Fold these 4 entries.
Entry 1:
Amino acid sequence: MTRTVAVVDYGMGNLRSVSQAVIHAAQGQGFEVAITCDPDVIRAAERVVLPGQGAMRDCMAELAASGAKDAVLEAAASKPLLGVCVGMQMLLDHSEEQDTPGLGLIPGRVQRFRLEGQLQPDGSRYKVPQMGWNRVHQPSAHAVWDGIPDGSWFYFVHSFYATTALPQHSAGETDYGLRFTCAVARDNIFATQFHPEKSAALGLALYRNFLHWTP
């Protein structure tokens, strides 16, 4: 029986690259990928991917306008959900970016990098947004990290970072001027600030692990 993964299409940002990576990861795995904002399709899917790119306020507004918000919240309560980039930030309580409330699924806040005047180890200034590859450290084991070595490199593009209220919800950490949470997890939810779809073989491995994750 073919199982469905819904990639939520609410008109924001990195949908194409995420959906193509999920389709690639799903090949031969018994999954069909639905790119959709139809609440009924999201509700019927076995698991859900929530991408996001750009300003969080715009992402939150477009998710509500698409009609998919309630279905995403229902999915988050009952089935595996993967958030990517701003799709991760949206899961938290609040973002400093335009004073934007999030979905409140994981306690925490999103803050802007404040790295003015700080120098990197090589003597160059920190740039915001952070763009490039960074090592991701795994504070504890998680099925979505299966086969992905601790300290692996993933690709980032962002000006804001997450702080979880509870340390057990921090599933990945990286350093850019400070150590911050770059992956969050709670129950059936896993999400990353970095872009697995831009992170070569290990990014595809992460998507594949998500497809087979049984929380």
Entry 2:
Amino acid sequence: MSEKPAFIEKQYLGREFIPITIRLVLAMFCFAAYFFTDERERNGDLLVVVGFAIIIISIIMGFLLHFRTQVQNKSILLNGLWTTRLVKIDLNGIIKAEKGQYSKYLFNNPVYNLHTKGTIRFYTAGNDAIHLTDRDGLIYIIGSQHANEFLRAIKDEMKK
């Protein structure tokens, strides 16, 4: 058993393009509303505070790890934020692994270990995902920004 993972990917909450854009537009709206308030009243000052708070929260979220994916020792290890449990997917029970699209929607919420309709989802950002089907028919959908390398590492581990 090797100690070195065949694949490691870290996905961060605040690095998705569309939510960053939304937060920056909100901050710009707060600054523009402050600029156009008359006589800089106390409520106008609140707009500046909210604008700076949005920017600071966006910066902090850029460093906030959502989950880490590792392919190691014929298994996939998914480790999430503080209180989430480690999820270990044994590759010996996987019958099919393929690359696909995570969702047909443009906007997707980040999820970790979401069980719905016979699937278990892990997603932070991007459009690509790896679809794993186990012997019981349960489908794991793991979003990845490096789906080709992730799939190659899974297939290499399954051959061992």
Entry 3:
Amino acid sequence: MYHKEFEIRWSDIDANRHLANSAYMNFMSHTRMAFLMENGFGQKQLAELNIGPVVFYEHIYYFKEVMAGKPVTVTLELKGLSEDGMFFEFLHNIYNYKGEHCASCEMLGSWIDLKERSLTKLPDYLIENLDHLEKTEDFKVLTKEDTRRHGKKPQSINLSELS
């Protein structure tokens, strides 16, 4: 299983003296990007394709506090992937130095064409590279409908009415 180990730094701790929410996010993002970079999704390759990753959501579930002084391990598994590679879902788990499960995060994302500013599919060779990542037991082939499965839709407001 793909994983990274992180030392807990002073700057990773919040006012309650445990791992800050932003540190969880940073560790998971670093783990994701390390996997992607090692599998053909480096800055140079993405620039050649003129694409970049976008995050639709990250749902974090906290189980146990993480304190300073001992490392954590962050794992990465593939929870879903669309046939054209446009949509992907990752599962991260965070474990303390004893192997105790401290947090879990489901992350859904896509790829954006940086010139057109619209979602885009992946070339076949990159889909294959993603498909090599260990899959969760509930892995599924994603569709566009999965991106709205939580029923959240944008709702604009009239800012002049807030005064």
Entry 4:
Amino acid sequence: MRRVSGRKLDEITARIRACRVCAETPEGVKLPHEPRPVLRVSSTARLLLASQAPGNLVNLTGVPFYDPSGDRLCDWMGVDRETFYDVSRIAIVPMGFCFPGYDAAGGDLPPRPECRPRWHDGLFAALPQIETIVAIGRYAQDYHFARLGHALPRSASVAEIVARWREFQSATPLIFPLPHPSWRNIGWLKRNPWFEADVLPALRAEVARLIKT
């Protein structure tokens, strides 16, 4: 497979990490804290975790999924933390690079609107070696399915998209749609036992294939 030079990837990654658009020239409300873009990429990782946006704990540490959601995601994937953070094998790219802050109900706001049009197309052009995308949540699913020519119906729920996971196994790159591993989704997981019974074994097998050294 064609590979883009590591230098090009390093350049765009450095620009993303230095970005201050949402604080200095935002679209709408200014970011309520200092920007801290979080992502992990390399020219060798074949597995991409495409997520929504960092949470507050991630903003404080600079480490993606450094929270209970990350523990659950590791379990879903069948990997330990050391493997999860091996950037040579697993890339992590959220739809919004900075923690967006909280809404009035105390939940995380959606990903910042500045990130996707400014950075994502160029970043993924510099990651042609990605073979499988684990698309976590609707924001990541909308973007990656559309980018790969499989736009999703606006009316489809995350549950409906995840339930169709077998349909996406022939895509290139292959796409695994997942719900967010947040504690807020415990009820959804209990109501949908097929996710643990059918989706997770296939996901773990694919992860194991991609991270083999």
